[in-house]
Amino acid sequence: MRAADVQAAIENLARADGASPPLINHVCLTCVQSVGAVGVCTSVRGPTGLYEPLCAVGPAGEALAELQVTVGEGPGWETVDGDRPVLIRDLDAVSAQRRWPLFAAAAAGLGTATVFAFPLLVGVVAVGALEIYWARRPLSNTAFADGLLFADAALLTLMTGITPDGDGADPADDGFRAGGPGDPFLDRWPQVHQAAGMVSVQLQVEPAEAYARLRAHAYANDQSLREVARRVVERTLTFSPDRDSE
C-alpha cells in the first residue's frame, strides 16, 4: 500500500459521503476496511491534556474507545502521553496484562488480539493517536507500514480540518469538525464534557479531577461513561466530597 493509494481511498469515500475535504471518520472507515481490523480509533490530547476520542469504527471500535476513557489506561493513553508508537501483538500475554491491568483483559474479551497505536506527531509532540485493533495474530508483514500511512493521513486530516466558519481548527478545539453532521460517536461526547463541568462545580475541583471522578464512578458501577454523564446532566446523579448520591 502506498501513501497515494491511501489518500485516494479516503478521498473516494469522502466524496461518496458528500464531504470535502475528508473528515477523520473517513480515515478511520478506510483504515478498518483496508487492513482487516475489528476496530480503529483516533483520539486527541484534549484541553485538560487527557486522552479524548474523536472517532471509533469497526465492530469493537466504540467499545474499545470508551473502555480506555473509563479505565484511564490503554494504548491510546500511552501513545499520547509518551509520543511514541505502542505495539502489542498479544493482549492476552502476561506482559500486556501487567502493562494495562484493567484494559488488556477487557479488550481481549471484546475479541481483540493485537493493537498497534501510532502517535500523530507535530514535531516531537503527539497531538493524538491512531489505534488499530485486530482479532488475529500474526499480522501481515505490511501491518506496521500500513498503520503509519493511515496515521499520517489522520494527522493531515486533523491539521486541515475545517470549522463551520471556514477557518482551520486546533484538533483539541471543541469546534473541530472531526465527523460529519450527526456523527453517532462524536455527538455523544459533549455531554461527557458538560457532566465533567457540573461535577467540577459540585466538588469544587479542577476539570481533570472531575473527569477522573466520572470515570471512577462508571468503572466502579459497571456503567458506561456516557451513561454516567447522562445521569449527571439530567441531575439524577450528583457528586459530593463524601459520596456520590442518586
Automatic annotation (TrEMBL):
| Chain segments annotated as transmembrane | 102-130
Which GO molecular function, any one, fits this protein according to its record? RNA binding
For this protein, the record's InterPro entries field holds: ANTAR (IPR005561), GAF-like_dom_sf (IPR029016), WH-like_DNA-bd_sf (IPR036388)
Tell me any Pfam family this protein matches: ANTAR
Name this protein carries in UniProt:
ANTAR domain-containing protein
Q: Which domain of life is it from?
A: Bacteria
ANTAR domain segment(s): 185-233
Q: Is the keyword Membrane in the record? A: yes
Protein keywords = Membrane, Transcription, Transcription regulation, Transmembrane, Transmembrane helix
UniProt KW Nucleotide-binding keyword: no
The record, for Gene3D superfamilies, names: 3.30.450.40, Winged helix-like DNA-binding domain superfamily/Winged helix DNA-binding domain
